[in-house]
Amino acid sequence: MRTFLEACTRGLGQGSVYALLALGFVIIYKATRVISFAQPAFMLVGAVLVTYLVGPLGFWVAVPLAAVATAGLALGVERAVVRPMVGKPAFVVAILTLGVDQVVRVVTNGFLPSDVRHVGDPWGLRTVLIAGLSVQERHIAMLIATAALVLALFAFFRYTRMGLAMRAASYDQEAALAQGVSVGAVFAVSWAMAGALAAVAGVFSAVGGSVDQLLWIITLTALPVIILGGLDSLPGAVLGGLIVGLVQEITATYQSNIGWLGSNFSYITPYVVMMLVLLVRPYGLFGTREVERV
Prior knowledge:
Order of helices and strands: HHHHEEHHHHHHH
Structural class: mainly alpha
Distance between the termini: 54 Å
Strand order of the largest sheet: 1-2
Number of strands: 2
Largest sheet: 2 strands, antiparallel
Low-confidence stretches: none
Strand content: under 5%
Mean pLDDT: 88
Helix content: 55-70%
Radius of gyration: 19 Å
């Protein structure tokens, strides 16, 4: 039982990173009805920025500064590349974001020299005992940071003027425009928020390790997370990330007992879980069912 509970704590920690990444995808999708494939690039940019800022400024200052800078980069991408494509098919815009991702990652890789770079986190791989369980401090930090950001997001969407405008635009852009909502501003804020969330996720993905050119690959797990939770559901993104993290870590812990599935079966468990859920709920756990009259 102790082994199982410790695996759950690790899974929740890793799942919180998936949740942050999935939230960025969902926020942009709710605002624009486009899946942005530029999130991996923003994730890498945020982590790389922290490796340069942490020396002179310290970790606690470097992370929010990197998040703000990455949000600015995402805002610039939306203004310069995505905004001119308004009115074009969503598929075309999604493919365009793939190109943005490639360009930004190639440029960012130029700032990753051959020496190992770290985000300078204060936890590393240290562990603490909680209720008799050995828990890594980084997983506790991931959970606390994700909980704080999720609460801030939900408060923003519920109580601020821009948050209400974003909710209105996500339901019906034409009706929102008719009521005086600046849909262009909604698009811009959505991209900026998604960029900042990706930057924080990138930092926590590198905690206890190093930053390299392959850090972005973790976002491949965020894709089944958003499908699992529902493309337009923020609570679904959070819950889906935690579920995937739990299943993946528990499978990795007990993988020796299911060796006939292969030594790396835990890596594909997010996609297995996604397929099983979609067989029952094609729109995800919390996705909005769309009905079209023909």
